[in-house]
């Protein structure tokens, strides 16, 4: 009897740590003050892009959605923003030190291995994509390979380059320092507590390649689950009464430390930021190849998610096309 009670107690604790999955509440856009005419124009514009799904969330309710919002797709580089969220808790709990160097963490790579100068890069440098380490990386696009600076051309912390090596090594560091699998950790620490409907740890995998010993960690999400993740960030990391991610980390990770001048956007800790003069303060988004987007616009209390299954739409959707669509959504909102 005692053993049975203890087992039930443990199960109760595990269940208590997770929010029950709940469907999004739909609201009549006109009643919420939206322009029906502009919103219909957004719908038509979106359909020409052929996303798998698009969701518009305001004040925690679904203003509009179309496509299959339960269909899980590879979120590509959105994985980086998901990992950034996990870092927030790990840093707050003292399990990861942002000032720790790669030398201190015993991080190296395949031949040609890292130099002493490269090993001076810190975890924070990697989060900002400023490591100065231009070792070949897994999951690099041909464009990034072509543009990758020469080894040793920039000291750690001095130069921003969108660098898959940094992002992949952050996955290695997370697993090494916390002792947790990334996908199990995301399920237990984020997906469960915020009531994601579709995600399980089986939706992630590690993609090993010969170029580097540090694998990327592709992950699949549905649009309705991605919207919950965006809403968590809009809520400053809080879901109900539970602080899932420290509010200070939400602000720190979505602050621009570098600028991609060509597109007038900033880069934080694996999040893109949007210019304040157009979007109001603290707007940001996660972006993945092919049109995977989680956008958060606090000035409008908006979360907008787009997913694209590249098996159904091989051309995908350009990020610039989504940003144009996001502008129209903002104009349609009250």
Describe the structure.
- With about 325 residues, this protein is an alpha+beta fold.
- The chain has one domain: DD-peptidase/beta-lactamase superfamily (Beta-lactamase).
- The protein is built from eleven helices and twelve strands.
- It has helices at about 1-15, 35-50, 80-90, 125, 140-145, 165-180, 180-190, 225-235, 245-255, 275-280, 320-330, and strands at about 55-60, 60-65, 75, 220, 240, 240-245, 260, 265, 270-275, 285-290, 290-295, 300-305.
- The strands form three sheets. An eight-stranded antiparallel sheet has the order 2-1-12-11-10-9-8-7, with helices on both faces. The chain has a two-stranded antiparallel sheet with strand order 3-4.
- The longest helix has 15 residues, at about 1-15.
- The radius of gyration is 20 Å and the shape is globular.
- The N and C termini lie far apart (about 60 Å).
Low-confidence stretches: 1-16
How much helix, percentage-wise, in residues?
25-40%
Shape: globular
Order of helices and strands: HHEEEHHHHHEHEEHEEEHEEEH
CATH topology: Beta-lactamase
Rounded to the nearest angstrom, the distance between the terminal CA atoms is 59 Å
Number of discrete domains: 1
Strand order of the largest sheet: 2-1-12-11-10-9-8-7
- Give the integer mean of the pLDDT values: 94
Supply the CATH class: Alpha Beta
CATH architecture: 3-Layer(aba) Sandwich
Mind telling me the C-alpha Rg? Answer: 20 Å
Structural class: alpha+beta
The CATH superfamily is identified as DD-peptidase/beta-lactamase superfamily
Largest sheet properties: 8 strands, antiparallel
Strand content: 5-15%
Total count of strands: 12
């Amino acid at each position: 009897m005692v053993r049975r009670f203890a087992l039930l107690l443990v199960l109760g604790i595990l269940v208590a740590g997770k929010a029950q999955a709940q469907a999004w509440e739909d609201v009549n856009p006109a009643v919420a003050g939206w322009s029906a005419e502009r919103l219909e124009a957004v719908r038509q514009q979106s359909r020409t892009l052929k996303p798998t799904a698009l969701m518009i969330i305001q004040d925690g309710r679904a203003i509009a959605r179309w496509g299959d919002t339960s269909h899980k797709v590879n979120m590509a580089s959105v994985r980086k923003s998901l990992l950034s969220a996990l870092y927030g808790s790990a840093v707050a709990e003292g399990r990861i030190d942002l000032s720790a160097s790669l030398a201190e963490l015993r991080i190296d790579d395949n031949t040609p291995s890292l130099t002493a100068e490269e090993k001076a890069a810190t975890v924070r440098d990697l989060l900002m994509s400023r490591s100065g380490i231009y070792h070949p990386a897994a999951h690099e696009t041909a464009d990034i390979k072509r543009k990758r600076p020469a080894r040793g051309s920039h000291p750690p912390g001095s130069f921003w380059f969108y660098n898959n090596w940094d992002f992949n090594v952050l996955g290695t560091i997370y697993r090494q320092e916390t002792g947790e699998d990334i996908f199990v950790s995301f399920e237990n620490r984020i997906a469960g507590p915020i009531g994601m409907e579709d995600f399980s740890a089986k939706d992630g995998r590690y993609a090993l390649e010969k170029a580097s010993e540090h694998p990327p960690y592709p992950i699949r999400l549905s649009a309705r689950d991605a919207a919950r993740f965006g809403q968590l960030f809009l809520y400053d990391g809080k879901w109900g009464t539970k602080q899932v991610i420290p509010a200070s980390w939400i602000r720190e990770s979505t602050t621009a430390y570098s600028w991609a001048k060509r597109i007038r956007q900033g880069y934080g800790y694996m999040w893109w930021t949007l210019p304040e003069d157009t979007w109001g303060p603290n707007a940001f988004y996660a972006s993945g190849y092919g049109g995977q987007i989680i956008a958060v616009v606090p000035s409008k209390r908006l979360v907008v998610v787009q997913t694209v299954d590249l098996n159904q739409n091989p051309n995908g959707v350009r990020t610039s096309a989504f940003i144009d669509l996001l502008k129209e959504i903002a104009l349609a909102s009250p």
